Amino acid sequence: MGGFLLRKAGAALIVVFLSSIVVFIGIRALPGDPAVALGAENRDPAVMAAIRHSYGLDKPLPVQYVKWISKALRGDLGLDSRQLPVGHTIVTRLPITLELAFLAILIGTVIGVLAGVIAAVRRGKLSDHTATASALVGLSVPHFWLGLMMIIAFAVDLHWLPASGYVSFRAHPIGNLEHLLMPSLVLGTGLSAVLMRQTRSAMLNSLSADYVRTARAKGLSERVVIGKHALRNSLITVTTVVGLQLGALISGAVITEQIFVIPGFGRLTLDAVNERDYTLLQGVVLVAATGYVVVNLLVDVAYSLLNPRIRVTGATNQ
Amino acid sequence: MKVSIRRFASLALVAACVAALVAAVAAARTTRSSADIKNGGTLTIGLAEEPDALDPTLARTFVGRIVFLAMCEKLYDLDSHLNIVPQLATALPQVSKDKLTYTIKVRNGVKFNDGTTFNAAAVKTTLERDLTFKGSVRASEISPINSVDAPNATTVVLHLKAPYSPLTAQLADRAGMILSPKALASGGTFAQNPVCVGPFMFKDRVAGDHITLVKSPYYYDKAKVHLASVVYRIMTDPSSRTQALRAGDIQVEDRIQSTDVPTLQKDSAITVKKAITIGYQGLTINIGNKNGLLKPYSNVGTDIAKSQFIRTAFDAALDRTTINKVVFGGLNQPDCYPIAPVSPWYKPTTKGLACDLHANVNLAKQLVKASGIANPTVSLMLGGTDPVNARLGQVIQSMESAAGIKVSVTPTQFTTALNRADAGTFEAFAVGWSGRVDPDGNIFGFVATPGTLNDSGFTNSKLDYILNGARKSLTTKSRTTLYRAAMQIIHRQRPLIYLYHPVNYYGVTKKVDGVQIYGDGLIRINNAGYTK
User: Fold this and answer.
1) SS (H, E, C) B386-422
2) Residue A254 or residue A301, greater confidence
3) In angstroms, rounded to a whole number, what is the distance separating the alpha carbons of residues B427 and B435?
4) How many CA atoms, within 13 angstroms, populate the side-chain half-sphere of residue A40?
């Protein structure tokens, strides 16, 4: 097990290292001189030179990379164009997006699974058609439109919820939920539509399977047959889909955060791109890439713990 | 005849009484409005962009100036008519006969927001930092300053290398913001905890989210400050900003997008404030930028560069009124000059100069014919890929087509467009300028040969002489004469074709009073507050 972990961790480190190079070069391949973007209306050659110097852009690329990565390894991601520490900004904003994604998954799963089960159990009836049509609408409606409609209805007209912003759970638990309810509903809508269709399909398979017929033949109540036997098996598919949708949720959060003015990781990334803030963008993308690698590593480890054949196969393949 | 004179006198007397009554009512209303403001409360302002570093030496963005106005006072400020007035200084500078020494008297008994004393030595420290700090954006703005002296606590003496009349205007912007020497000496990054003299002091900043300022207990005029705190929220999406104002999440909206203006104007809970800005939008024509900005200029040889007839025809074919109506819903101010009508310099410098806001297609056709260029073409680069820019490009294309000029439009991402403009790889570029109070800031950089924004690559020795003369000249009268002469040359040669002055619209909830917007487009909230 130790050897397996070491190998996986080593591979992960190599991936992070390669990502850092890709990130570094990729950002510099973006059109537009960052000094011009940072200089705003001031394009005095002396100012341009000062900006390039202060961000190290006047140095050769390999020198810039070594300087950046060596500081990053010490946990210092530098100062952004606002003269604020990038590391602190990321640490402040990443949890907001994670909280938003978690709430969206929660809402999406509850609505999607419930609607999927009802649609499958009442196949061909009005509720099935309604759920299927709703799923189609949920998949088709763009987030920004839905978000604006919800803001107009619940914030502007009814004044039930705030139109924008974020307060932390620690500072104000109710306020936190009030601010995140609409964004997570918007973000969860697409997910619920996908899950509804997947659940319905998986449930229909399960309901026509032999073991469900056997359960019914044993005289079990319909609630137990559906809840304990059919749904339980269908949830394997649902769980897989939720996992696959996680990445899409985090990237979809960019638009939702923009509409609801939530200071999350997605908006941070978008702002960094728009402002050509190299230091910030490098930090953001490096943290995101490292996050994906770490999650993958943890999944590999979890698989190997759950199924020892994986690490044996892995060892054999080595 | 006698009767009619008597009647006229009676009418005049009645009119005078009515005018006096109206004035008295207006004054009473103003007084009542001011008295109706209560103390306390937090004002939340939705900003259209995020300010960059909160360090006046390094700051570059327009939006940053909005935040600075509430926490960093300057040696000079602007009044509502955009005249320069003293702020931390007690009077306008006394200038020596040779125009090389500026003596500035500063306020006594003023404290920075860390409790330390503001004095001439602090002004010296700040100006020297602006001139020498690594990465300073202010250095070029006040580069004519050779040295700074502080002979006593209330006197600052600036020694200049050469006469430079726009200096006072520079000291009415970020270069004139005085920083606490104690905060500068603390060793930290000033932008993370900025300390100046101001009605509000910095509390916190969450990048990309908000900046919080709280009322300063040290401010010399704190009795007039009503709000307990101000929160600047970063809300880059214009629709979200508008909805947040309507929902009451924010009380002031920075720069409403044109499509939302009618909706907010109908909202009884919101006042829409309008400000014709000192900026302009125009078309920069690449005449001589063959080798890149500030590299030796020579004609690039395109149809529009080589023929003044084509440039004049291009201008004559433009219907500025229609552009404003079709592209901007009539919300901007069409014009032909770099100085805006809100500027005190506008009338005297443009008096008697021609500005046809409507197209003259026949004249344009004649000019095209006179140019000797058959089927002239112009490639127009747009400084953005958004729908408004696209509409602007299409309307210009259609207008020029009527005059026989074929325009191809290239929407380009803004930073990339600026890079191309600096490199000289364009023919015409639709771009704007946020504007400066002093005419020099709107003209010199763009059309003088050494101008650092002269993407046109325009060079004209007579114009250079005039503009340099205007920099050296101190009297308003002589500067007006020189700028008027400069505008005549620009209008004839057309390195830039000015289209309009942007009009900004701001939303303010009616629960708040005292929010002021001047022609510089900045939101002033120092004396604002909630109504009782």
Assistant:
1) CHHHHHHHHHHHHHHHHCCCEEEEEECCHHHHHHHHH
2) A254
3) 23
4) 17
Is B139 in Cβ contact with A156 (below 8 Å)? no
How many Cβ atoms are within 10 Å of A21's Cβ, its own excluded?
11
Question: Would you say A161 and A154 are in contact if contact means Cβ atoms under 8 Å apart?
Answer: yes
- Lowest-confidence segment of A138-142, A256-260, B521-525 by average pLDDT: A138-142
Pick from A83, A260, A271: CB nearest B58: A83
Residues of chain B with C-beta less than 8 angstroms from the C-beta of A53? 134-135
- Looking at chain A, which residue has its C-alpha nearest residue B246? A156
Token pair, residue A271, equals 């702002």
Nearest to B127, CA basis, from B103, B156, B107, B101: B156
Inter-chain contact A271–B55, Cβ cutoff 8 Å?
no
A156 contact residues in B (CB cutoff 8 A): 243, 246-247
Q: Give the DSSP H/E element, type plus range, for residue B147.
A: strand B145-152
pTM metric for this prediction:
0.84
**Cβ proximity of A199 and A186 under 8 Å:** no
Tokens (6 digits) for B46: 């939705």
B230 close to B42: Cβ distance less than 8 angstroms: yes
CB B520 within 8 A of CB B84: no
**CB contacts < 8 A (A, B):** 153
For range B85-114, the mean pLDDT: 97
Nearest to B451 by CA among A44, A13, A249, A162: A44
Q: In whole angstroms, what is the distance from residue A99 CA to residue A107 CA?
A: 12
Contacts of B62 in chain A (CB under 8 A): 40-41
